[in-house]
Amino acid sequence: MKSITFILLRTIGAFSQLLVTVILARLMPVAEYGQFVYFVSFVLFLAIPVNVGVSAYAVREIAGLDGPSQGSHSISLERWLNLYNLKVAGALAFFLYLSSVLFDTFSLGSRVFDIPFLILTVLFLGLSSIYSGLLRGLGNMIEGSSPEFLVRPLVLIALSYLYYYFNKSLSANSTAIIYVSALIFSTVISYSIWRKMFFSNKNKPSPNIWSYKVLLNMTVYSGGLVFLSNFDIVVLGFVAEARDVGIYKVLLLLSGIMLLPQTIINQYIQPEIAKSFKSRDFRSIYVTLRWWGAVISSVAIITGVIICLYYKEIILFSFGDGYIPTIESLYMMVLASIVNAMFGSAGMVLMMSGAEGYAKKSLIVGVVVNIVLSSLLIPSYGVSGAALSFAATTLVWNSLMRNYSKKALGIETSAVVLIFKRGWQ
Questions:
Q1: Which residue, among 101, 117, 95, has the nearest Cα to 173 in the 3D structure?
Q2: Are 51 and 127 in contact (CB under 8 A)?
Q3: pTM for the full predicted model
Q4: What is the pLDDT of residues 146-197, one digit of tens each?
Q5: Which of helix, strand or coil describes residue 205?
Q6: How buried is residue 266: exposed, middle or buried, by Cβ count under 10 Å (0-12/13-18/19+)?
Q7: Among 84, 55, 61, 56, which residue's Cα sits nearest to residue 74?
Q8: Contacts of 231 (CB under 8 A, 6+ apart)
Q9: Rounded to the nearest 10 degrees, how much is the dihedral formed by the CA atoms of 237, 238, 242, 244?
Q10: Distance CA 125, CA 97 (A)
């Protein structure tokens, strides 16, 4: 029952995030929306060290512990990650300030937002990731996910409508402020849940046993995913019109809808995979990947076909006529999403099994491919070039991770293979 509740709430949260995109695209002019998307992508780039691998690291380290050691290790990990978050924010503040002083043409204050605002955003993205990962690692899947994936988008929607009601317009700057306000609010809720669980707990924090090397490997992998999702947007923001950024964001959104089950299911089975691997229960891993892989692939294919047949109606109804992409770019993004789903959850398996180094290698190759292709294709072909770069990169890094999973762990992750295979080896 608890698992069904988590999947249901996480699905509602995902559609709430989709609703945020639809509402903002409707309330804001296309160019203003493109500028806001650029701001969010830029912030996510800056927050890669604290916003991505941290959550997965917390889940993996805490999920396999039982009894009193789980409480003391959780408190210790919380303090260690918070200190890491502060160090990263401080280093980033120094870098941004130095860059704005040395390079007049690279003034972040005029291009995106002022430096204190950026640092505040990065700091709270890190805190949100820390407490979400800790709570989910302890088995509190609903409490760990709801503030980030349900509360935050709903608050963002409410504040956006409130601002629009009184001002009759919604600019990129005002939306950025609303975005950060919703982020802070949801982070405070996550911390409050954590504090209620452990503030009165008599467990003393255990000695630090945490590894920067492992965290770095997981950050490179997860950060690579963020990079692949946002680098094309940043390049488009520099070499193309803001309208093109908005169109490409809609394509990414449609791609994300196809992979929505994969995102939700991966979060749900992360602790289970980590526990099964620590106990060397490969049979359970096989059954989990086979069943959920079939669900993920089926939904991706069905959703992709619907999008290809009715994309104009979907986009016109949801966003407006200013966001219609070329048919070539749409087909490339849909195909990339289907390929992603059919390769299975290889990256998540590598991360939860202690083989994050292989995931890091795959993403490094993917990032290099993405940088090269985006730099060559986007200036000449715009949105279509970005879509082609995204599709090719998706094929490369997914195939690498699937092969690394078989090589390092002996675990097949491809749903297509697992459905017709007997045994986990």
A1: 117
A2: no
A3: 0.71
A4: 898 889 999 999 999 999 999 988 988 889 899 999 999 999 999 999 988 7
A5: coil
A6: buried
A7: 61
A8: 367, 370, 371, 374
A9: -70
A10: 20
Q: In whole angstroms, what is the distance from residue 328 CA to residue 390 CA?
A: 13
Domains of the chain, by residue range, sit at: 1-210, 212-425
Q: Give me 159's structure tokens.
A: 């504040």
Residue 226 contacts by C-beta under 8 Å, 6 or more apart in sequence? 44, 45, 48, 51, 52
CA Rg value for the chain: 21
- Quote the tokens at residue 130: 């820390």
- pLDDT tens by residue, 241-292: 777 888 888 888 888 888 888 888 887 788 888 888 878 888 888 888 888 8
Of 258, 219, 243, 422, the C-alpha closest to 340 is 258
The alpha carbon of residue 244 and the mean position of all alpha carbons in its chain are separated, in whole angstroms, by 22
Matching residue, tokens 């009759």 = 168
Phi, psi of 165 (to 5 degrees): -60, -40
Q: Which of 392, 33, 34, 28 is nearest to 240 (CA)?
A: 34
Per DSSP, 422 falls in state -
**What is the spatial distance between Cα 360 and Cα 160, in angstroms, rounded to a whole number?**
38
